[in-house]
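Hello,

Our lab assistant flagged a job as stuck in the queue for most of the afternoon. It eventually completed. Since we weren't sure the result was trustworthy after the delay, we are filing this so someone can double-check. Below is the sequence as submitted and the structure that was eventually returned. Let us know if re-running is recommended.
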Amino acid sequence: MRYKSPYIIEFDKIGESSIGYISVAQAQEKIPFNIERVFWTYYTPESIVRGRHAHHRTEQVLVAVTAKTILTTESPNGKTEVFILDTPNKGVYIPPHAWHTVQYSRTAVQLVFASTKFDEKDYIREYEQFKKPIITHNSAEVKTQMVGAGTVIWQFAVILEGAVIGQDCNINCHTFIENDVVIGNNVTLKCGVYLWNGITLEDNVFVGPNTTFTNDKYPRSGVHLGPRLRTIVKSGASIGANATILAGTVIGSYALIGAGAVVTRSVPGFALVAGNPASIIGWVDEKGNKMQLDGNTWVAIDGRRFKVENNQLMPI
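-- returned structure --
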């Protein structure tokens, strides 16, 4: 995985001392990304150190528009850099996966340009988590910077630049992940799985070997009709080996897809499905244990009881 280093940005200083100055920041010029969010900090006591986090995918540019701030960054390989911002036409670019802290003089106002809207899941707030290594086999081709700490990527995996992969994932050998793919934390992707544009795997998802995802219901070579359908696998769901998941389906939380199933429509949470086309053959709990039918209710291994209403499992 390539890591961009922090660097100083000098904004143009237009004007002269007799009339004052103006500096301009434009996206994709001095600021090397599209700006999705702007925020500023002020009245910060000098005894306070802010920051103390990194981001999975957010890029930022920090500017001290008044007074002085001291920015300290640490890269995943442990390199530490210190930047002093004491003039309003100077900023610092902070890439993803850079741990950073900021100290302020008494009257400092800090302006921040960010490449993403706020998302708590994008933050790495625990330093111990930040320091977990990202292990990538030397035969893998990883173009994205957006890989979370503790993730392991095995032989001959190919991951394109726009993909987002969370923390503590296991990306097995001979896998492919396209640009418009989002993978949450603690996801297991077994061998021979290809994730095409438009696929989201939430936290704690398991995808068995040779699972096939599609992203176009009516494919033609070189022809794309209408908007791409998004396929979502909700948190905790598992997909068995050689299953096929058609474009635009949603697999609910903790659902269990049987090996070889062909999923042609969305699957509710906790459902156990199998066959071609896949149909519900039972229900499972959060750990994948099959529930037992007792009259009109389904009973979990821990004694909890559920009923099915409108194809959804509901607690009693």
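-- support follow-up --
The delay was a queue issue, not a problem with the job. The result is valid. The helical segments are 127-130. Residues 127-130 form the longest helix (4 residues).
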